[in-house]
Amino acid sequence: MGALLEKQKLKQSQVFNVSIPVPENLVVMDKEEYLELLAKSEEGRWWVVDDVLELLSISRSTLINEILLNPRFKDEMDIERNKNGFVLYPIRKGSPYRFLASRTRKYFEENFASILLFK
Fold first, then answer.
1. pLDDT tens per residue, range 51-80
2. What is the reported pTM?
3. d(C-alpha 36, C-alpha 92), whole Å
């Protein structure tokens, strides 16, 4: 009987109160709130290819050749083909791509698996 009582005591959850000092230059906040603030800071902001490369951590050739020039994704992204698009494709050789930051981040987060599996 003593062993059973001992096992029951071990199954009880333990609560530890820990105090962690947060430096004055840092803020602790809810992840959802942080993501909302991040999205708001990107509203109306345009990115170039380098910004998207930093976001996705992929090579330039992968982004351009396998995603941006892929007809499946281009139809969704190109603002000239889709009113909900978020990429301005180069008008002529040497022109830059332009990406609406907030929609770019959202698109790649929502379509991460389908883009990776499609390649």
1. 999 999 999 999 999 999 999 999 999 999
2. 0.66
3. 36
In a domain, 29, yes or no: no
Give a yes or no: residue 12 inside a domain: no
CA dihedral 48, 36, 106, 95 (to 10 degrees): -10
Encoded tokens for 82: 């889709």
- Nearest to residue 96, comparing CAs of 76, 58, 68? 68
Q: What span, in angstroms and rounded, lies between the C-alpha atoms of 32 and 81?
A: 32
Q: What are phi and psi of 31, to 5 degrees?
A: -60, -45
Which residue segment(s) compose the domain that 49 sits in?
45-119
Q: Is 55 exposed, middle or buried (0-12, 13-18, 19+ CB in 10 A)?
A: middle
Rg of the chain's alpha carbons, rounded to an integer?
23
67: its two tokens: 């995603």
Is 56 part of any domain?
A: yes
